[in-house]
Design a protein that fits this description.
Blueprint (H helix, E strand, L loop, with lengths): L1 H4 L1 E2 L2 E2 H32 L4 E2 L3 E2 L7 H14 L3 H13 L11 H7 L5 H8 L11 H8 L9 H11 L3 H12 L2 H5 L3 H11 L3 H12 L2 H7 L3 H25 L3 H30 L10 H27 L6 H8 L2
Antiparallel strand pairs: 1-2, 3-4
Helix pairs in contact: 2-4, 3-4, 5-7
Length: 336
């Protein structure tokens, strides 16, 4: 009783079955009509070989053949592409191998199976679990995109096809990455590559980096990288230098301040030396009767070497006014 009352769309199941039977007859007549067009087109222009090896597929006909097919298409009121495809499909399916109940479109899709024996055997046997060939089943068989994707890979292929336009791809990617569940499934290394691609623009990179360094955990971990820390320190020094140069170039009081700056630099340098000596005076006596481990001694010696190199640098700067570091000093202070 329930099956009798079931509906498909706006019609009963019984009426739907009647419509399917009726339309299958129409499809069968359409199939015969398309093959007839193809057979007659083949009669007028038999299929040539391309380079003596392969039959000419649609779009590869000789110019003279194309002219003839255009004339035929115009004389019977069809598009040239319709006649061209019908001719090629008919050439792939001899009359004895055409399957009744299988649409012309399915014949045309399966015609792409190169091996003739395989092609004829395939169309005679629908996919497992199916009563007949469908367009999607035929497309799957020859590795083409389906109209109604079902497997994950088919859905991915469909999305890639729809997103071939750069603007569409950009919009889709943006929308997807706004979905937390989607972003969470992206592998860490892929996330890094995405961020690198998105931050190729200097303005974007600056905005993103500024935002990330405002997060204490991120800033702490980032400064654990020697190169990153050195670049940040270098950037701070460079920014100060540029600000100073701009001030000296544009400010009317720069000459007066320049003299004060020299005095301040002298005081800062003396203060730094005094602070080091005072700190050493407090810490070194605490080492009395204490034996440091080999690792500890190595670390202290490395830092003493840095201090000694820095003191030499200070003396050179004071005596000559040259403050540039040589490569060896730069590497030493960077810990390389």
């Amino acid at each position: 009783m329930a099956e009798q009352n079931a509906k498909v769309g706006s019609v009963s199941q019984q009426r739907y079955d009647q419509i399917v039977t009726e339309l299958r007859e129409v499809v069968e007549q359409h199939q015969k009509g398309q093959f007839l067009i193809g057979d007659r087109a083949l009669e007028i222009e038999p299929l040539r070989m391309r380079g003596g090896q392969q039959e000419a597929a649609p779009g590869q006909e000789l110019f003279t053949v194309r002219q003839t097919l255009f004339r035929l298409a115009e004389d019977i009121g069809l598009a040239y592409r319709t006649v061209e495809n019908a001719r090629w499909t008919a050439s792939r399916w001899p009359k004895g191998k055409r399957q009744s109940g299988v649409s012309f479109r399915v014949h045309r899709i399966l015609a792409h199976i190169e091996d003739e024996t395989e092609r004829f055997a395939t169309i005679a046997k629908p996919p497992a679990g199916a009563a007949r060939w469908t367009v999607d089943a035929a497309n799957r068989r020859v590795g083409r995109q389906v109209e109604r994707p079902s497997s994950p890979q088919e859905k991915i292929t469909a999305i890639h096809t729809l997103a071939q336009d750069e603007k569409v791809a950009a919009t889709v990617t943006t929308d997807f990455l706004k979905r937390p569940a989607v972003a969470a499934q992206v592998a860490p290394e892929d996330k890094v590559r995405v961020v690198e691609e998105f931050t190729r623009d200097e303005g974007v990179a600056t905005h993103v980096t500024t935002g990330l360094l405002r997060r204490p955990e991120v800033a702490f971990k980032a400064m654990g990288d020697d190169t990153a820390r050195h670049q940040v320190n270098h950037a701070q020094v460079e920014r100060s230098r540029q600000s100073r140069e701009d001030f000296e170039r544009t400010s009317p009081v720069a000459p007066t301040v320049r003299h004060i700056d020299r005095s301040m630099e002298f005081l800062d340098l003396v203060t730094a030396c005094h602070s080091f000596v005072a700190a050493s005076g407090r810490v070194v006596p605490g080492l009395r009767d204490r034996q440091l481990s080999e690792d500890e001694r190595t670390i202290v010696h490395q830092n003493v070497a840095k201090v000694r190199a820095t003191l030499d640098w200070i003396e050179t700067a004071v005596d000559t006014g040259k403050v540039d570091m040589d490569e060896e000093l730069t590497r030493l202070l960077k810990g390389e």
